[in-house]
From TrEMBL:
Ranges of compositional bias, category Low complexity: 169-179
InterPro entries in the cross-refs: Myb/SANT-like_dom (IPR024752)
Protein name: Myb/SANT-like domain-containing protein
Cited PANTHER family: EXPRESSED PROTEIN (PTHR46929), MYB_SANT-LIKE DOMAIN-CONTAINING PROTEIN (PTHR46929:SF3)
Domain Myb/SANT-like: 15-110
Provenance organism: Urochloa decumbens
Pfam families: Myb_DNA-bind_3
Region entry Disordered, spans: 164-196
Length: 289
């Protein structure tokens, strides 16, 4: 290690500090939001900005290779943790920056099939929000993740149905204690002011089911995501398209501009129409027809 201009210079392996990570991720998040990350990776100027910011903020003479190596580490964290968190029984503690395991049996079963995940039981990873924002799109859910999400939804649905059936008053011919009764899980009961437990109504049970079905659907959709950059309409392009519409009043133009800049889909709908129909369609959208 040598010194240059008062900065610590590293040529080989570099130990990253929290301050260095923060300086790097600040730049990556900024450029990610600006669309500077494509399916082929970061645009060249992003690495230049990242190296400069880490040097200035941490007084360490890092190189592009160091930044690329750290990005690979973040990518690995996102890959492994993202798959863990797709399973029921695990969540992320934002305050302690650690994985929370609610179901030890599920964890034992998971690491039995995923050995690389074992070290994440107690690993502290700061800036998880930024890491998952930037790198999560690179990792589509595996078929195992999709299956696990579906099974979790089915399991909850079965428990809800069982709890509802067991709490339903029996007919006279089947009255009496049932040997098959098992108390429902905590999420299926509510407490009233007297401290007694009451069963969920049907609509409450369906609400619980809908959350798990939604999670399963989101996981399954990840596997169908394409790696193309989303195409968004430029405000200048929208304004130019509105100016081209004959006899569109200034106030109507501005109202339409507000609508179209907040919805790419509506702008696509506008541009799909012939020019002589666009004004009428816009007036309908802004409520003047």
């Amino acid at each position: 290690m040598s010194a240059s201009n008062g900065k610590k210079k590293y040529r080989g392996y570099l130990t990253w500090t929290d301050d260095m990570d923060q300086a790097l991720l600040d730049v990556l998040v900024e450029h990610y939001n600006s669309g500077d990350r494509t399916v082929n990776g970061w645009k060249p100027h992003v690495y230049t900005a990242a190296v400069r910011n880490v040097r200035e903020k941490s007084n360490v003479d890092v190189t592009k290779d160091h930044v690329m190596s750290r990005c690979k580490t973040f990518d690995k964290h996102c890959n492994i943790l993202g798959r863990i968190l797709a399973h029921d029984g695990f969540e992320w503690d934002q305050e302690r920056n650690k994985l929370v395991i609610h179901n030890e049996d599920a964890w034992s079963s998971y690491i039995e099939k995923n050995k690389a995940a074992a070290c994440y039981q107690h690993k502290v990873i700061k800036n998880w929000d930024a890491i998952s924002l930037i790198f999560s799109r690179d990792h589509a859910a595996t078929s195992e993740d999709v299956s696990a999400g579906a099974e979790n939804g089915q399991e909850v649905a079965m428990k809800v149905a069982e709890d509802f059936r067991d709490h339903t008053p029996s007919s006279p011919s089947t009255s009496g204690p049932s040997s098959q009764y098992r108390p429902g899980p905590p999420m299926l009961t509510q407490s009233n002011k007297q401290g007694r437990m009451k069963r969920f109504r049907t609509k409450d049970a369906l609400f619980c089911m809908s959350g798990n079905i939604k999670n399963s659907f989101q996981i399954s959709m990840k596997s169908n995501e394409t790696q193309e950059e989303p195409k968004t309409a430029c405000p200048k392009e929208i304004f130019a398209a509105l100016q081209a519409i004959p006899n569109l009043a200034r106030d109507d133009l501005l109202r339409a501009y507000c609508i179209l800049t907040s919805s790419d889909r509506k702008f696509e709908c506008l541009m799909a129409l012939p020019m002589d129909m666009r004004k009428d369609w816009l007036l309908i959208e802004i409520g003047k027809k």
